[in-house]
Amino acid sequence: MIAEDRLAILDTNVLVHLARGRAAGRFIDDTLGLSKRPERPLISVVTIGEIFSLAEQWEWGSGRKDQLTALLKNVVHVPVHPMVVRRYGELDSFLIRSGRRIQQNDVWIAATASVLGCVLVTTDKDFTVLEEAGLIELCYIDSVSLPKG
To answer: For the chain, where are the E strands, in sequence order?
Structure first.
C-alpha cells in the first residue's frame, strides 16, 4: 500500500495492465486504490513513449488504443526536467559501477521517481537494485500474484 500523502508514479508495465482493463489491472487499481487516491498517479513521458511503442508492436486495435488514450487523461504526465536529466546520469553511473544494468528507459523512469520523491509502482524486479541502494522507493507487485484473465 502507498500512504495517501505520497505520490505514486507508475511504471510502464503497470500502465499496460491498467490499459488492458482486465483482472490484473483491476486488481492493481483496487489493491493500491489508484483511482481513489487524492492525487492522480504520475507517469514519466518516457512511459508514454514506451506504451505507444508496445501498442504498435502488439497491434492493439482502435478500441484498446482508445482505452489507453482515456487512461492517459487520468494520470499526470511528468516531463524530463533538467533535474531528471542529472539524476539519470547519477543513476546510470551507479548501475554501471555496480554491474547491475537495467533498461535505459527504466533508468529515466527511476530518475523521475527519485527527483520527485515518488513511490515507483512496478512489476519489474530490475528496480530493486536502486531501492536497495536507497535511491528510489518501490511498491513492487509480483506479477505471479496477479489474477489471470
So the answer is: 8-10, 42-44, 76-78, 119-122, 137-140
Please give the grid coordinates belonging to residue 119. 513511490
**Grid coordinates representing 29?**
487499481
Q: Does the pLDDT value for residue 3 go beyond 90?
A: no
Rounded distance between C-alpha atoms, residue 149 and residue 93, angstroms: 40
The residue-averaged pLDDT of 60-80 equals 93
The alpha carbons of the chain give a radius of gyration, in whole angstroms, of 15
Q: How far is CA 127 from CA 31, 39, 83, 91, 108, in A?
A: 21, 23, 20, 11, 11
CATH of domain 8-142: 3.40.50.1010
For the chain, give every domain's residue range. 8-142
Q: What is the pTM assigned to this prediction?
A: 0.93
Cell of 76: 499526470
Average the pLDDT over 17-22 and give the result: 91
CA 108 vs. chain centroid, Å, equals 11
CA distance 73 to 15: 12
Q: CB of 88 within 8 A of CB of 107?
A: yes
